[in-house]
Each structure stands twice: as C-alpha cells, then as structure tokens.
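Sanity check. The docking grid for manganese (II) ion depends on where the pocket ends up, so I'm generating a full predicted complex first rather than guessing from homology. Inputs follow.
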Amino acid sequence: MFHAPIVPRVRKRSRPAEADVPRREEVKFEDVRLYLVERKMGRSRRSFLTQLARSKGFIVEDVLSDEVTHVVSEDSHASSLWKWLKECAPKNLKTVNVLDISWFTDSMREGRPVAVETRHLIQDNFPTLPEGSTSTPVTTVSQYACQRRTTTENHNKIFTEVLQCGRSFEVEKLLSDERYQTLKLFTSVFGVGPKTAEKWYRRGLRSFTDILADRSVHLNRMQQNGFLHYGDITRAVSKAEARSLRTIIDEAVRAITPAAILALTGGFRRGKEFGHDVDFIVTTPELGKEKSLLPNIINGLKKQGILLFCDYQASTFDMAKLPSYRFEAMDHFAKCFLILRLEASQVEGGLHSADGDSRGWRAVRVDLVSPPVDRYAFALLGWTGSRQFERDLRRFARVKQQMILDNHCLYDKTKKEFLAATTEKDIFAHLGLEYIEPWQRNA
Ligand code: CTP
Ligand code: MN
Ligand code: MN
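Predicted complex below; grid placement will be based on this.
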C-alpha cells in the first residue's frame, strides 16, 4: 500500500479531470448489445463487468432499451427476473436473449460473443400460476426509483440478500483478474480515471510504489494530491465531519455575501452516515451575482490556510443551448473540487481517522457547485442523487412524460416549453410524481 509521506514529482502542465469521463472503447461486435441486470449483481460488480466487456469490444447499454439483444442476469430466480423484464417491457422481449451469467463469462473468456446454447438460457416459466392461487395481483414495485421510497435502511436489507444468495464463481474469477484488481486500485486515486489506469497497467506498473518510482510517469496536480492525501481521502467522511464542514463553508460564504443560499447536497442530504466527500450548492438570491461567488469562497478558504487543493471550473452554462438532447456526464455550472484540511478540534466526537493517527487533522474532499438562482431547484435535485435515482427520474421524464430533465432544466417536448421551478416539489409536480423526500432517494 502507498504511504502518504512519499511526495510525487511535480509536472507543471495540468490535465483536465478525467475521473468521471466515460472512456470510449473500440466496438468490435456491432450486432450485439448487452444489458447487465443490476438486481442480485449489485452496482459496483455490474460496473466492473461492464468495463470488462467494453474493453473487449462489446457494446453494453446502461438502460434496457429496444436495442438490447442480450440481457444477462445473475438472478437465479427465473420467475422474478421475467416478471421484472415484462414490467420494463421492451418491444422486442420475444426476440431478445435472456441469459445466465455463464454466457457472459464464456464470452469474456473467448473474447467474442459465444453462440447461445440452451444451457445459457433463462426460461420464462412465470405464466403458470401455482395451484390454488387466487388471481389477486401481486403488489408491483415500480421499475422507476423515482416512484419508490428508498431509505438508507432499505439498502442494508438489499445488501444482506445479496450476501445470502451467493454469487457465481466464474464471475469472481473474472473480477479477481489481476488487470481488474490493478485498475481498481489505480482508479481509487483522486484524479486517476480508467484511461490513465489502463496506460499505467500497459506499462507494466502494478502498485503505487511502481508508479511513483517510474521516471516516465507524469502526474498532474490532481493526481499528485490524490497520492499525497490518499489515506485521508479514501477514508469515509462521517456525518459529524460533514456537519463541521458545513459550518466552515457557511462562515466562508457569509463573509462574502451574507444573503447567500447554501445547501448541503449529495449523500449527506440523503441522510447517509458516511460519504466519500461532502457536496454543497451555493448561490445568491440576486441572479448574476453568483458569478464571483466561488472564486471568492475559494480565496477565503485559502486565506484561512485550509485549502489543500482546488480544481475550479468556470461556468459554461448557456440557456440558449438548452434543452440538451445528448447525455452529458457533467453539468455546465461553475464548480470546484476541493481538498480541505479539517481540524479534529472542530469535529464533535473527533475525526474519523485511522487508528494511531495523531496528526489532529485530516484531508477531506469537498465539492461546491454554483448555479444561477433560477436553476437552483434543478441543480439541487440533480446533485442530491443518488445516481440511480437521477437516472430513473430522467428516464421517467423521457419515457412517460416526453420531457427532458437534467441539472439545468425541465423541458416539455409536447408543449415545446421550459417548465419553471423554484423548489424540488415543483419539479416532481411537473413530472406528475408524488414528492420523494431526499432521504427516500437512496436507490
Ligand atoms: N453529480 C452530478 N454531476 C457531477 C457530479 C455529481 O450531477 N459532475 C450528482 C450525482 O447525481 C450524484 C451527486 O451529484 O448523485 C453527488 O455526487 P457524489 O458526491 O459523487 O455522490 P454521493 O451520492 O454524494 O455519494 P458519496 O456519499 O459517496 O459522496
Ligand atoms: Mn458526495
Ligand atoms: Mn461529490
């Protein structure tokens, strides 16, 4: 493991953050479009299997659309899987291959989509009702997370189920593959995305020590800080630490604009006990005045001596370019990705730090985003997450209401107009959805 005192060499030219940018892989099999069912598989496992398949030239769709040709599931209960599939009801359900994970592992091993054999198929045996069963419909759970209330407690339940049901040994083998373990390790560093991780792996590097000892490796400023504060920023941030940071940010904001609006967002707004960072939205009640807000806050934090790292991205927001029909990983608001120094004395109950750590402070990742006030509700809804909840909300808007929702706006394609909102409740109402509280958005 990497130990913090090693200071990486500095290179002046800084490259843009890439951590969130999906990498583009060369497509080798145009006719095959996979969809991996997250149920039973879990999110991180699904994401690693997706990466693996894409790296081998497969197309993997994030959503179950009519274009999908192969649905792959780790769910051994055929009836519940088919019930779920029918609820999603892609038009081509009759022609799509519904396959066991063994088809996936066989294909990964071969490096090409193998022919579908009977042993790969998950048969639809749902229509036969058990004898004596009444025709009372089973309560159905909506496929859209925005029509469900998912608290952090639900999560623990799902997690327990996963542990109980066990997993395919073949998949474990795929994921224990040295390449994937190494890529996972490398991408755990702040500022290191899949592309850089892959490049390092190809050069034969396998550990942090390898990377830091290699003279040909150049780290950008974000990655240098990622290594420098690795132990701290890979350690979860506690609720008490988030609360303390809220006070610190609030004071920095009030010193500039007493009337500013500051809201905690992200996982902590959803009531999570721990997070990988702390997210805030900040704006001014007067439209346009928010422009100088983030640079001023950053300056204030710098003067306090607690700014360890700052990647500021100025706004590229332009109402004239909305609505956007293509998927974008990032919104266009001004934002900054920070690493702040948090003193133990400022946290109720002390820091969430490693045993034996007596520094009296820790580094914490903080995100600030600053939309114009008339975009506030959309930004707040978008940054509260969870990512799954947001995906489903957008899909619901698109599929059920012919509307486009993103962090900037809600657009009604039928009426050809933007729908205004000052609160999240307004947005849910426009979408014809019951309001879901932030702590019920933990899908
Ligand atoms: N988000 C976004 N655009 C970004 C980054 C994040 O819209 N460029 C949104 C995502 O929808 C996400 C939320 O902001 O749900 C918070 O992002 P993140 O901090 O990565 O996730 P959390 O849900 O807060 O989880 P954690 O507790 O691990 O930080
Ligand atoms: Mn977060
Ligand atoms: Mn964040």
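Relevant for the grid: The radius of gyration is 24 Å.
Also worth noting: The mean pLDDT is 87.
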